[in-house]
Amino acid sequence: MKRAAQSTETPQVGRSVPRLESWLKVTGRAEYVHNLRLPGMLYGKIFRSSVAHGRIKRIDASAAQAVAGVYRVITSKDICEVIPEPYYGPAFHDQPILAIDKVRYVGEPVAVVLAADPHVAEEASHLVAAEYEELPAVYDEVEAMSSKAIVHETLKPAGTFPDLKHFKGRTNTNIALDFHLRRGAAAAAMKRAERVFEHRFRTQQVMHTPLEPLVSVAESTESSLTIHTASQSPSFVRSEVARLLGWPENRVRVRVPFIGGGFGAKLYIKLEALVAVLSLITRRPVKISLSMEEQFFTLTKHASTFRIRSGVAADGRVVARECEVWWNGGAYADIGPRITQKSGFTAPGPYDIEHVAIDSYALYTNLPPAGALRGFGIPQLVWAYESHTDMVARELGIDPVEFRRRNLLRDGRPQATGTVMRDAAIEKVLDRAASLLEWEKPFDRGTGTIRKGRGIAVGFKACVSPTASLAMVAVNADGGCTAYCSTTDMGQGSDTAMAQIAGEVLNMAAESITVVHSDTDVTPYDMATLGSRSLFHMGNAVKLAAEDALKKINQLKSELQLPPDAPIPDIFRKKYGMQAGSVVGAGSYIPSYKSPDANGLTDNATPFWMVGGSGAEVEVDTETGRVRVTRLVNVADVGTPINPRIVETQLSGAAIMQLGFTLLEKMEFDARGQLRNASLAEYKIPGLLDIPESMANEAVVAEQKTGPYGAKGVGETGTFGVSPAIANAVHDAVGVRITSLPLTAESIWEKLK
Amino acid sequence: MRREIHFRLNGEAVSAQVAPHENLVEVLQENFGLYGARESCGQGLCGCCTVLVNGRAVSGCLYLGCLVDGAEILTVENNPEPDAVQQAFVEAGAFQCGFCTPGFVLMTRQLLDEHPDPDDDAIKHYLSGNLCRCAAYPEIIEAVKLAARKRKG
Asked: Measured between CB atoms, which of B40, B99, B128 is closest to A688?
């Protein structure tokens, strides 16, 4: 495609540049790992556990091995010969590459069949047989607190996080993190309160369902390893695989092209350690592509239970709040302990409450592992505290929006941790959502069997901290620019945003800039593409790198006695006598942070706050319980948008995804931990017919003063308020309060009877 | 067990050695390096594998490769220059990760061939067999309408 002129005076930031890779995507030519085939490549198909908790007595691979075309069947015994301690994970080193001695959930990888033909590998994988001695299992997160079924005999914290150190070597527990926060004296304040309200909420286990299922390819030599993977965290994959092998990091190369959707499913180690060791064992390239079904057995979103209790004074001010949250982490901790703490400390909601107590627990159970999913635990919390807030307001006879306004956390006031709020437009977001819904105007409540209602909810999130991003920006002799960063573009538009930021600094059209995709041999370290952190962290790093390049260009100009407006190619031509050379700027960004003290308090919990609010209008059919969302408005504080159009689509996409988690999606397990709906035929994600008739998605006028050009992250914000806004609207319509997601027609109809 | 089949692929006469169990997506990927039709759900429910066989959209992940012997096959890669539908998808920003986009593009072409001026309801129903987890649905509806206008010129 034709490219725009490189040099420009047009502002690049604040312009709705179409995604740089647009043409590649609409012509089917974008590069995904999915497309990759290497000479001599073997395909791996995974044989998985059929029991939720059991000791492995025997694995019989003889029938599989006998199938013509099978190269080899691999079990943990083979893995251990290459890696004696093959356990990985970002918080706990608890997850084996293939099950060792025990299986901990139905669907856990037990063996891999390798063959040059994927059909042969798959056929043979059905012939592997395993015998287990079944053990008692635990599935519910609250039961896991005291259950006799223990998922891990000994806890093995990774050592990366100081607040997990006390779990080292602990036995006889399923608790993988207990986070406690105490500010003020909640119990005493509760006693003095005029009214006290307590409710309990639950969210269900759901799955990310990226349409590009997880896929990784590894190729190796004696001393080096290249992993091509659909991963949101290439730098982590490099360091974790290097740690497992005992290799220096520079011998492990991790490449990530475009990703076909991530949403948190493709973080940390998923298939990468497995394909790496398989390639080292076989000395051939190895590819594993999961089926859609297998994705349900890989990573999911935490189911959760939240007990929330509020003490309210006579003037309608919430004076005390107690929050107890149990997170169902499944069989392996993944990043659950971080969710439990880093999102857990926002459990009282965006309200100014003097006395707060939070207890947040990450629990092991015998279900598929849970990790980050678009919101890092926040949607589960907002679901509970915004349903609760509505229930309290209605109980007190105060308008729900007015009740929120009375209690809202405003800039300059301390949040539960004690960190003072800055650049968090909570009130603006609430006001705008209410005005888009025309909250003050009379509302048609429907007639007959179709009743109408409306609801509102607002939530907030602290960006995970501390994390670092590094970037390089090169200006080439022809005046063009290349940006190098390990942020992965999984559809959120990061390539485009980074090009806009670099272009703004260098006065170049974003369309003319090439953004090099993650390749750990080339692109510098980045913590990961997660938690809406990239635009802020990597955006700042790219801005610094571009400014560094610009400074070097200006130095050259003055050294060479060129005028300030000399075109870039002239500088290089004069310096090198021909079109040669380049200038490389480097940028590194790591915001300051202070760890919480023994009471969970800190005055510097996060580099920035995200704020998202939703308003919903619904119709409920009183004969069937069916809910139709007729209008959904999503309002967010994203700072100052770099690319307004992409911001809008991010808000809209996040809200529709959350709509699926609100009305449609639920992983259904039977009494023995077997998932019953692991396919898109039985697990329904939103399609075109499920979207609300009317939608509005807006960013309020705001500025994140520490962000690049006033911007901050947006990927998750649209999810925050959707579920409770709809539940509040359903209650408004028919007086039925649903406290457990999803809001199905059956659950509403049951209560309407 | 492989047998040779002959068909027209994006306007060109081609042949391939196909095993009886291979589906159309595999035939296109392994023999012709065309990755625009891609398997996702594996059950014909998401539309990522959409291919036009004799002008009709099929789920390439369920359609046996050997059945295209003698057929006219069009994939998203068929036209060297992007058409009105692809231009509209770019202008409306009707995708994020892009994995489902080829399927939507092909179905939109078929929709506009049959109904040159569809309303929202017709668009939603016609494209309801294609899923987009990034949920660029409002933008997709906008892109279809924009493409309809572009086609009328």
From this structure: B128
